[in-house]
Amino acid sequence: MLRSFVTGFRYILLTASASLLMACTSSAPLIQVPQHLFHDEAFAAPKTAPNAGSIFAASPEMKQFIAKEIVQHMRIGSHQRALFNALYTKAQLKLEYDSSYTRNAVETFNARSGNCLSLVIMTAALAKEMGLEVSYQNVTIPENWSRTGALYFNVGHVNIVLGKRHFDNRIQFDKNDQMTIDFYPPEDTAGQRTTELEEQTVIAMYFNNRAAESMAAGDLNQAYHWARASITAAPNFAAAYNTLGVIYLRHSKDEFAYQALSRALELDPDSKVAMSNIIQALEQTDRHEQAVAMQEKLFKVQPYPPFHFFKLGVKAMEEKDYQTAKRWFKRELNRAPDYHEFHFWLGLAHLKLGELSDAEQHFAAAKSNSTSQKDHALYSSKLERFRHAQNKVQ
Prior knowledge:
- By secondary structure, the protein is α+β, with helices and mostly antiparallel strands.
- It has helices at about 60-70, 80-90, 105-110, 115-130, 185-190, 200-215, 220-235, 240-250, 255-265, 270-285, 290-300, 310-320, 320-335, 340-350, 355-370, 375-394; strands at about 5-10, 15-20, 95, 115, 130-140, 145-150, 150-155, 160-165, 180, 195.
- It has 3 domains: about 1-20 and about 50-195, C8orf32 fold (Roll); about 200-305, Tetratricopeptide repeat domain (Serine Threonine Protein Phosphatase 5, Tetratricopeptide repeat); about 310-390, Tetratricopeptide repeat domain (Serine Threonine Protein Phosphatase 5, Tetratricopeptide repeat, Alpha Horseshoe), CATH 1.25.40.10.
- It has 16 helices and 10 strands.
- The strands form 3 sheets. Strands 2-9-8-5-10 form a 5-stranded antiparallel sheet. Strands 1-7-6 form a 3-stranded mixed sheet.
- Helix 3 (about 105-110) links the parallel strand 3 (about 95) and strand 4 (about 115).
- Helix 6 packs parallel to helix 8 (about 240-250), helix 12 packs antiparallel against helix 13 (about 320-335) and helix 15 packs antiparallel against helix 16.
- The longest helix has 21 residues, at about 375-394.
């Protein structure tokens, strides 16, 4: 089975703080769109044509929300605080976090749910309607992974900074003129380095997420067009070339994959994600010596790939060696203490060993750490059945 690695941007929880925008703005040279890396002839037309203009567009309902829920609070506080309170503190929208799908601003508003990037996009759209300055930040966080089948996601983190209104001519800087809205616990992002993102890069992130989601759903044609749009939006966004390379690998276009992944590594030479994928492309295009060299380079920085110990645990479960499985799952949890699937499988190992209290603890942790409504419902159902069975025994 082809194992592929992609990068996504999606996170949970929310905090807000008034702060200076402590970010680095890079003045990277202009990069031309690499038309030679696109191969439209190998794919069917998209069911949904990528449209950058629709990402931050505001609907009449969103404008009405501003008039009804935000404008009336502007007299007693800043415009930024009024927006934050209307969206989140007072929970008029009753927003829910859902990592399974990246929505544009209107879709997020209508669904009242979305992942981190979706919520950033919706907040930006509303802020723009209010005349506020908007900027975006990439936050450097510890490596974080999730998976859908054989597709592995290296999950990144972005937040949004709301500035003063465009027509506000105050000269002196006031720290209250800026508010950072972050969809991650403050203790987990405190002291982390941030880098300012151009809006075109945020657009590229949106398209890249959609490409990964389409790929996970088995729609390579649509995934290709999302990835193409991502590169076109921001030709210096390395993750999009990696995603395009994975799409080519899954479409058995190995030479195309090699070219795209080579470009990803040119832009980000330290990317373990791109290194992992290009090894497959090198092997499948008979560049065996280069594949070995890349494997050795990757091993130095990542001796054990994501989910390595988890897969050993699943294998031990299949062999009914539950003590060994428990040990592997615990080792994987040491690397990713909050990942729901690791908790669930460790709970199963405890259950098989008759360690019912520990099993319940990890089933509950799987539920509380789930990041999609589908997974949350699944774990809730399994936890309820477990507790029901225990009550019958007692």
